Amino acid sequence: MDPRQYEHIVVNDADIQSIVMSYLLHNCFNETADSLASTTGIKQPAIDRENMERRKQIIQFILERKALKAVELTEQLGQDLLEKNKDLHFDLLCLHFVDLVCAGKCEEALEFAQKRLAPFGMVKKYVDKLEDAMALLAYENPETSPMFHLLSSDYRQQVADNLNRTMLEHANQPSYTPMERLIQQVTVARQYLTEENGKDAFPPFSLKDSLKG
Question: Which residue from 4, 34, 37, 200 has the fewest beta carbons nearer than 10 Å?
Answer without folding.
Answer: 200
